[in-house]
Specification:
The complex is a heterodimer of chains A (about 230) and B (about 325).
Chain A (H helix, E strand, L loop, with lengths): L8 H11 L2 E4 L8 H8 E3 L9 E3 L12 H5 L4 E4 L11 E8 L6 E5 L1 H7 L1 H6 L1 E4 L10 E2 L1 E4 L4 E4 L6 E3 L2 H15 L4 E3 L7 E5 L3 E5 L10 E10 L1
Antiparallel strand pairs in A: 1-13, 2-15, 3-15, 4-14, 5-13, 5-15, 6-12, 6-14, 7-8, 7-11, 9-10
Chain B lengths: L16 H15 L7 H20 L11 H7 L16 H11 L5 H19 L12 H14 L11 H34 L3 H17 L3 E4 L6 E8 L4 E5 L2 E14 L6 E3 L1 H6 L6 E8 H4 L17
Classes of the chains: A alpha+beta (about 230), B alpha+beta (about 325).
Chain lengths: ~230, ~325
């Protein structure tokens, strides 16, 4: 979606997110520190156990911690997922800002609404999953699709690595979703220039990453989660 | 222009509506491992019903599930008491159902009655040598689905949140069939009473009708015509909301709406219980009771401000 001339940047951002579900702003304030840029975009959501801004660089499995995607997939492709899907309420917005880019490594995007259309809202709402490892509240039961009453919005979660099916029926549904996702070609966006900023509705859009073997050491992305957009 | 806020949360409170509904979902799937006439099917269904009832109460606030000690309330609000070996306690299922009835007057009393009996079968299963789930009547499954449906509707949800579409269809069919059987049974009861009444001598019928009319004046309730003997009979109900007060000179007029749940005729003895049964006879509509009090009698000891003043304000 290209920003019409008469529309301010934040209005364009909100409109794009509310209609399409993501927004890409090329070369957005590349000389200004990420912290300031992110605070202009919205209210930062501080994640327990993490820095408010995380710096993402491709890592091998050996370099990375086993509780991370890099620890599982290394330089290979990251499958489509939503972030912190194993949390009871995942962060609403995910922002990826290019510090040092690459045209060879792409961010994959898929609109989660496609899952509702393919499988049905009822089926996704009945599919029960649990975190693969115990958390503070044990291994809480979560649904793939929930209705957030206070925000009048659906909340989709998907992570084939951090979530496991909780019942036999859910196992069948999840296997079907995995097979479906294998058959789909996601959109690809390369964050290539400093300041390229991608804002994603983490309750709707799945994202992943193409293999990062080539030029891996060149790419650096700053990531933040936002609880709301300005 | 700011979007609505939502911040990430790692864990869900175990008394939250979503946690309880997810448990209900898990047990609902577990039921399918057994055939309908297996005692384990019935036992597992009692878990589903209890979790859905607790989720319903939690949908207002998890605090409504807390047992009386303050630490349980504190826990329900998302805090952890520092007392050593604290184990959070929630109220029993009978209390849950009672609170649901009081908060949601639209939840039929007869379904609450079924839910209490069904969940207490689980207690009997666990605490005695009895086999309550082997001894249920054939209509239990229809009432179970109807109770689930009614509770879920209080959370703006439907049976689809627990059951696949084929099961939902089956459940709706069972509920409809049970309602049809109720209609037949109520009409049969009225017919039998009418037949017995018509066989009575005229003098006896007149005396019984007069006594019934006197009785209905003395006792609270809504006066209606008995469908069997046409004497004055009474419909009794539960309040649906707080009373509306009006003031006229030295009088207070209190108006209160009631949802009917029982019909009684003291002339022919016809008794009908349950709003769905009353609906068959056209007696299930909400009725209004209006009482007039002397102002001194109504506000005896209570602070009173003339209602034509607005709210207190610092000006």
């Amino acid at each position: 979606m290209r920003r019409p001339l008469h529309m301010t940047a934040d209005l364009f951002l909100n409109k794009s997110i509310s209609t399409v579900g993501y927004a890409l702003i090329r070369k957005f304030e590349p000389t200004i520190p990420s912290a300031e840029v992110f605070s202009r975009l919205g209210v930062v959501d501080f994640i327990e156990g993490q820095n408010s801004i995380q710096t993402l660089t491709p890592k091998t499995q050996i370099e990375a911690s086993p509780n991370t995607y890099s620890g599982k997939f290394g330089m290979g492709e990251f499958p489509l997922h939503t972030d912190l899907a194993h949390w009871s309420i995942p962060p609403r917005y995910l922002v990826l800002r290019c510090i040092r880019g690459s045209t060879k490594i792409a961010t994959h995007l898929l609109d989660g609404n496609i899952l509702s259309r393919e499988f049905g809202i009822d089926v996704l709402q009945r599919a029960l999953v649990q975190p693969r490892r115990p958390m503070k509240n044990g291994r809480q039961l979560l649904r793939l699709l929930e209705w957030a009453d206070d925000l009048e919005s659906f909340r989709l979660r998907w992570d084939s690595h951090f979530l496991v099916p909780a019942t036999g029926a859910s196992r069948v549904v999840i296997a079907r979703i995995c097979a479906f996702l294998e058959s789909i070609e996601p959109q690809e966006i390369a964050l290539r220039d400093p300041g390229d900023t991608l804002i994603i509705d983490n309750w709707r859009w799945l994202h992943g990453r193409s293999p990062a073997r080539a030029y891996a050491n060149l790419r650096q992305i700053d990531r933040v989660y936002l609880g709301s957009l300005t | 222009m700011t979007t609505d806020e939502s911040f990430a949360e790692k864990s869900r409170h175990p008394w939250s509506m979503e946690s309880l509904l997810a448990k209900a979902q898990r047990y609902s799937e577990e039921m399918n491992a057994y055939s309908v006439d297996d005692w384990r099917y019935g036992l597992t269904s009692s878990f589903v019903l209890e979790f859905v009832a607790r989720a319903t109460l939690s949908s207002i606030s998890p605090a409504l599930l807390a047992e009386k000690e303050w630490e349980n309330l504190y826990f329900s609000l998302g805090h952890m008491p520092i007392r050593n070996k604290f184990i959070p306690k929630s109220i029993g299922i009978n209390q849950v159902l009672l609170r649901i009835s009081d908060i949601f007057p639209e939840f039929p009393k007869e379904l609450r009655g079924f839910a209490e009996i069904h969940v207490n079968r689980r207690n009997e299963e666990l605490h005695t040598g009895g086999n309550p789930f082997d001894e249920m009547d054939s209509n239990w499954l229809a009432q179970y689905y109807e109770a689930l449906k009614a509770l879920l509707s209080l959370m703006d949800l439907t049976l689809t949140v627990l059951l696949e579409s084929g099961e939902v269809e089956y459940a709706e069919d069972l509920i409809l069939k049970s309602k049809n059987e109720s209609i037949i049974s109520v009409r049969k009861e009225v017919h039998e009473r009418k037949t017995a009444w018509n066989l009575k001598p005229l003098e006896e019928k007149q005396l019984l009708s007069q006594q019934a009319a006197l009785w209905s004046v003395r006792w609270k309730g809504h006066r209606v015509t008995c469908p069997a003997c046409e004497s004055v009979a009474t419909v009794i109900g539960s309040p649906t909301a707080e009373p509306i007060l009006e003031h006229e000179d030295d009088l207070v007029i209190e108006t209160l709406d009631f949802k009917p749940n029982k019909f009684e005729c003291h002339a022919c003895g016809l008794k009908i219980v349950g709003v769905s049964h009353l609906d068959v006879l056209g007696l299930g509509e909400i009725f209004t009771d209006t009482m007039t009090y002397d102002i001194a009698e109504y506000y005896d000891g209570r602070e009173y401000m003339r209602p034509d003043f607005g709210d207190d304000f610092n000006e």
